[in-house]
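[job 0417] fold request received: AzlC family ABC transporter permease
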Amino acid sequence: MLMKTKALPRNEASMEFRAGITACLPTIPGYWSIGFAAGAIGTLAGFTTLQTALLASALYAGSAQFLFYSLWATGAEIASVVLSVFLVNLRYLLMSSAMSVFFRDYTTFQKVVSGLLLTDETFGVAVQQGSQQSKVPFAWMLGLNMAAWLNWILACIVGAWLASALPPSLMEGLSFSLVSMFIGLVLMIWFASRRKALESFSIAAAVVITLLTASHTDMSVVVIVAASVSATLATLGLRLFYRGGK
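[job 0417] inference complete; emitting structure tokens
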């Protein structure tokens, strides 16, 4: 009887872990599509498959990895790369704060593990789980995060490996993909936006700042300044829009 009593929590944790993996399944195609591209871009930026795998494991943020590769390829200084990645990943601070209401019963170690493996996709799935069940068990969250993390790493490895197997002449011809990928992302965001005027203004501001400062300072610094100023102007414009709407 004592053995059954002790085994029950372990069985429940195992079931919750598997349930978390199941909840992650709909998001896995997204991890593979973006992770495959991230791995290929890493190879184009001059990284080996092993280095790309290690970066995917440690950094574990698609937008930050793309930014890292592009800045590294342009010869940006380490401080500029670290600061840029930090600014891009600041959104996870807000996500973790929003999830903290479901992490109250977690230990400090469990909170750290859950927070470090949080992504945009797992955040959305976990918030839905918490809203429906009023709780997010740690074993469930761990299963969700681990499934996403491992699939992301594997997708990056496959993308890097296939890109490294291409002939050198074709690799040189694909060097434009870093720039074209970011242009494509910007256009996708613009077409999906409901405030195209504000989006256009922020893009124009970034371009103008870049053109005015590119010849006077390091390009990595220009990227940070242009992105920060344009994002600030867009935020102020959005606040004024809402205030005027009221």
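[job 0417] notes: Confidence is low (pLDDT under 50) at residues 1-8. The radius of gyration is 21 Å.
[job 0417] exit 0
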